[in-house]
Amino acid sequence: MKIYLHQTHHNVADFESIFSYLKDQFSSQKEKRPGIHIFPELFLTGYPLQDLCLTSSFIASYLEFQDKINIWAQEELSQNYGTDEVCLLMGGLNYHFCASDVPLKDEVVDHIKNVIFQLVPGQKLNAIYTKQLLPNYDIFDEQKYYKAGTQSQILDWNGISLGLLICEDMWASNVHAIDPCLDLYNYAVTEKKELHALINLSGSPYNLFKREQRVSRAKELSELFQVPFIYVNRVGGEDEILFDGSSVVVAQKDILCTGKFFEADLLEFELDPQKKVLLTEAREKERAQKNTWEGLFSPLVTGIGEEAGLPRLKVIDRKLGQEIVRALSFGLQEYAQKSGFKKFLVALSGGMDSALVLAITRLSLQEGQELEAVYMPGMFSRSISFELSDQICKKLGVKLYSLPIKFLHTNCRNLFGQVFGEKMEGLCDENIQSRLRGALIYGRSNQTGAMVINTSNKSELAVGYSTQYGDSVGAISMLGDLYKTEVYQLANILNELYPGIIPEEIITRPASAELREDQKDEDSLPPYERLDVILECLLSYRYNRQDILKMGFSEEEVNRVINLYRRSEYKRAQFSPIIKIKSKSFGFGYRIPLSKNGKFY
Known about the structure:
Largest sheet: 6 strands, mixed
Strand order of the largest sheet: 5-4-3-2-1-15
Distance between the termini: 56 Å
Radius of gyration: 27 Å
CATH architecture of the largest domain: 4-Layer Sandwich
Number of domains: 2
Structural class: alpha/beta
CATH topology of the largest domain: Nitrilase/N-carbamoyl-D-aminoacid amidohydrolase
Helix content: 25-40%
CATH superfamily of the largest domain: Carbon-nitrogen hydrolase
CATH class of the largest domain: Alpha Beta
Strand content: 15-25%
């Protein structure tokens, strides 16, 4: 029996595109592919939907879409395939309504379920399984929208028996009161059900090391049930969140096939109907250590607890660096294309962050897209900053404009003095330069319709070392999930992959915002190799002030970082979307009150 894994790439709520895909895959013109076809979690709607799933216009369109699929299955699909030839298993929403006394409304939503629909020729969509574990941490808030299932299910179709799971169902832990995998196992034992395979319809977001974790868990479950584990995942970038695909089929310890990384794909797997397993012995629930709440956000830090030296961030090696570049390029393109942008705009400073953003953006460019850079020198900008900006633009073949802010800055100084009777100096004088640049780069954006890419990194965002409405502007942040030390590592890896793409002096020169004479980042911040470790420990929720002090950091330094971190919450709340590549990031999954008691760090 052939099993097909449809690793699909569709926009959220793009019902026309989804329907076209189905029609194309099973049209009379295509070579027939009898067997079981498996699609990702919420394939029929896209994911995540957030409050869209509660919107009346969405609900009406979705129900019409379901009717359209039912008609297609009863007419066109049944003409091309027999009832026992093909079976489609698709993720979708199942709405349940109750009577309403709301004027002009006949009924309102009672509850929504995240389900697997079965569709065979000549019949209608049939919800056969409901997702049991609804994640409610970090970026997930499924308990707000959906009602959890309570029943294990094994599908029997044409002599093939498949255990059914949806995404989180495979990740049992102490966070959840039930274990759908264990319940499914014991259900098969009690009901004396034979199994050919387990399937998991997934909408699993990407982060570093996630692919390895999925494969490891799939192997565990395959060994437990003694049958192949079939995992299909979606592809796409939904604002900050990325979905990488990477579908996989494993049999015990062997990987039988894998899907492409950040690309739509169609995998074929031959399931032997004779190889089936009858489980005979029930199992007791064991304490799940791997997927506990704390384990989800373990900081990417090494050396904690070691006697010699301070802890440090895990090093990005060449392989991981290539993966990061691929993820950031994909996230940028997804956001731009879904938002309707074909032009990109980067404010170059001659420094590391903007150079890396420019290089990755240039490498990601597709046919018909354009990229330009604007250098905006102020009275404290060094000539080397322009020279380096010019070098990288020539290397990349990017048009560079020089737009000085010196005279605007001087006029602002004079105007402030005349109106307020005080000199513009200190932080006020520094920030006005950044805000002038922000205004000018968005003026250019308005002229050309280009998308401004933010160039701030995670370290700056964590301690507020950026100017609100200044260098914090942008449609999306490419580096907002990379600490400064990681930015340097990634730049070096990029230079290994594409020799000289970033001028070496950009990497080696001291970091500076050039907003005052001889300014350096380390005048205001601890060295990044120490700062970034402290920040990662705080962001993971695992370590407080005392824990970090025990690691060997000085009390003065820790207190200083925590104070900067705490006071910058309001800036982060107004920051642009961040391409998420780690398990714990600022942005959509980070929800901290802006005003709070500062002792909780």
